[in-house]
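Researcher: I'm preparing a figure for a lab meeting and need a structural model of a single chain. I don't have an experimental structure, so a prediction will have to do for now. The sequence is pasted below. Please return the structure as tokens so I can convert it later.
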Amino acid sequence: MLLQRATWPDVRDYLEHSQGIVIPIGSTEQHGPTGMIGTDAICPETIAVGMAEAGILVAPTLSIGMAQHHLAFPGSITLRPSTLMAVVRDVVGSLASQGFTHFYFLNGHGGNIATVQSAFAEIWAEASLNGRASSLKLKLANWFTGQRIVALSRELFGEAEGSHATPSEISLTWHAYPDSMRNEPLTPKRAPNGPIRDASDYRRQFPDGRIGSEPDLASPAHGKRLYQAGLADALADYQAFLTDH
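Model: Understood. Here is the structure written out token by token.
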């Protein structure tokens, strides 16, 4: 069930049998010449829709995240760490006030991890500092690190996967939106690797936006397999999470 397509009585009835909710979270940032700017939000959202079809309540995607290092590429948008932490805290607080206890953030962007985990720490610290136990269970799960996804990405792409604008994530977005496929020459074929600092440094070192990847290996057919693997990973992990009391 998708929260935005439900009515409040639908959610009331859902809470009678489950207090868990999935919250997709991603980013709005460049993904090389052939990847959509919304890739990091589209990927977890696509998998989360499959979870909704399995009867799990799925919240609207938090589609803007930590992307300051991409700002030298037009179209990228970032939040400050403090802003994203406040968003996460307010989303959790809103739903917790209605009876939700298990919050499963399905993440599509590595740059969100530290900030979201810090938001969780703030939520738990607030309870502790007020002398009460928190009933809230909070988890950040990265769709791209699931056991099935990692194995399949290795099988399909090997070292050509890279770390940004990867063929895995672009394949998954093309499975979801096949009309958005792009085929443009990429030079060099495999992008270089290396550390990044600020936005200017990123653009200087990786002028087309890719890091270590060969996204021309992407395809909707690969994306379908990755979707199935990612959904299986997420469903199994979510069910295990619900048993945490």
